[in-house]
## 1
Amino acid sequence: MDQFTQPERPAFARWLGGTNDVTHMFLSAGNGPDMINMAGGLPDPSVYPVAELAAIARDAVAKNPRDALNYSPIEGLPALRDAIAARFSDENLTLTRDNVLITTAGLQGLDLLGKVLIDEGGLIAAHSPTYLGAIDAWRARLPAYRPFNPESNAFDAVAALKGAQFAYTVPNFSNPTGRLIDLERRKALVEAAHETGTWLVEDDPYGALYYDGDPLPRLLSLSGAMRPGDTPYSGPVVYMGTLSKELAPGLRIGWLVAAPDLIAALTMAKQGSDMCSSGLTQRVALDAFAARLPERILPNILDLYKTRRDALCAALAEHLAPWFDFEKPVGGMFVWAVARDPSFDTDKLLKAALAEGVCVTPSSVFDVEGRNRRAIRINFTLNSAERLGEGARRLALAAARVAAA
Ligand SMILES: Cc1ncc(COP(=O)(O)O)c(C=O)c1O
């Protein structure tokens, strides 16, 4: 054997065979200077309160080095857990720090849920189409999926949840469709979780981003109302939040709110994952909450994103209508456009779009079986109104090419 020849190496784990390369394609192609990237779910960096966060971070290190620079408890800084418990408690729902685990943003919450609740072949009931990051987070667990669509007329919440380890849903401006689950279906889901015992995971990164109308109640709050006096809350809803869309994703701070026994199991999983989330950014989050920073920057975020949503929808109506239907979303970060022709292939559209200098996300990556190729998810928060208009024009050129092929 010469020095460059290797013996046969152990194979990579089986789950890697189930990944897709579409994500890789749009992540690696989506950032050139001439590329209009409407694929990701990214905030506009101009909304970050840079000066205030810089001052808070400096004070966190200088004044609270024990919190900021030490390992923190696995569950998170007690004061931050208390702040989250207080933020989500209401007249029917009493949360304590025992209901709260601080996570390294939302994605770690998804990963830990997979670790704690899914053995190989374990069943996940997934709101379909399903957030790509969740599918990715659970891939290594080798789960089985049963999709459900809470918008369908025939939706039966008990049938959707029964027998699953957990049900996963994004009730506020779902990623990818941008749609809301209405109040009646929210109640049906929560009642079904109480009846069947299935954990009901409410992933809510976009809950603050309502551009029109009043926010609908959280599943967690509806569940609390079904068992007033349950202190601390011990019901079936698992609520997931993050600072990524309300403040800054670089902080990597999120939280899981759930029954204390599930929080204890998730804490065990986190111990073997990263031991604890960054003490520095936990301390920054705590001080940012105390200064009401998320609440103070929200009006500016809502104004900016609402204008961009309207600009994108106007541009899509002008350029893309021959090929795609879409609804204007009430909030969130995405427009979901569905091809009029059921045989239109949006994986092919992505390739054509990249050649035109625009990037969107094809529906196949949000389908656990990769079969839905009829829709695209278009982000409107990252680019200016002008660039969104140009992006829609380029997308129309690509769509015309795919339709003619
Ligand atoms: C539905 C959903 N869940 C979770 C996340 C995770 O975000 P983060 O890890 O930044 O909190 C995202 C991010 O886009 C999302 O869209």
## 2
Amino acid sequence: MRHGGCGGRLTRETPPRGPELQKQAISRIGAGGDAESTPEELLIELAIETKGLTKRYSNGIVAIDNLDLHVRKGEVYGFLGPNGAGKTTTMRILVGLMRPSSGTATVVGTVPGHGLVQVGSLVEAPAFYPYLSARDNLKALTRYAGVPGSRIETVLAEVDLTDRAHDRYSSFSLGMKQRLGVAAALLKDPQLLILDEPSNGLDPQGIVEMRDLVRNLGKGERTVLLSSHQLAEVEQICDRVGVILRGKMVAEGTVAELRGQTGLALMAEPEQAAGEALVRLLGPEAVRLDAGAFRLDVPPGRAAEINRALVTSGIDVSELRPAARSLEDVFLQLTGDPVATAEVTSGPVHPATPAGGSPT
Ligand SMILES: Nc1ncnc2c1ncn2[C@@H]1O[C@H](COP(=O)(O)OP(=O)(O)O)[C@@H](O)[C@H]1O
Ligand SMILES: [Mg+2]
């Protein structure tokens, strides 16, 4: 458990939640429907837009449920959710591999599957000939796709496989195979790149390489839709993030917007007396103790009032500042689902920077 310390008396394990909270969160960060769009938002050009996208598989599983996704032109968009949340299903629909049960999707201004020249994707495991070299595999694809052969060396360089281009596909590591898959997706020099968990299964080094690659690919005009269950991965390379859980979009916005600046972080002594005073002042719902520091779920503007109240009660306040929540905290608050949060891990995205909050 991540939030311990003061016991049930002071705090609930997780903040209040439910449909109401989720709705607030979505509207707060501007992912609501047309009715809530400001004129400014309507002017933003979207590379991908879905409205009420729903997919029910023949076995009855509703994999995505009324999903509204807004990917802006030129951005790197992180599509974040635990395993089984519906990411692959959504992406299959976006690239035209599958039809939705209901709802609509617009991809580079047209229906999925029609703008294929402008869309490159790595959604299903790419099919390469194991006994052909990387270069010959790409050659076969250019012929099939009617792409000039001159693109081959360019994309090999882009994914850093030039030196290994003459080696057989079967001799490649998983990371190299994935990078070749990205190279294939780049052959058409697409304006939109859709990548479904390209880091999945890679070792830490492979994850770092893939992350740097995606970051580079997203520079300039190109739009990238990247799915992941690695918080740290999307946090570090994405302009905006959509969080999906059990087929539903629970939040959409920039990493900074999702994190928010709500709440205060407080250190005070003695801890027990401070906790009791805080609960009296703010109510038990608003007070959590996390690794020796209080997290107060109140507007940061109340800092002076809280400080005064504590000092008056004879409590020493050593630190009081606006709290920035980790994306992991945000996920927990939005979904209220510790299981999902555990699956959406910080992961070994960069061995040197355990970013994205503490592991559970
Ligand atoms: N072909 C399929 N037939 C039936 N159910 C499926 C199929 N593909 C995925 N599902 C189910 O749909 C849900 C979403 O899966 P998926 O889109 O693969 O999620 P994610 O990519 O986020 O892990 C899961 O419950 C999964 O078991
Ligand atoms: Mg998937």
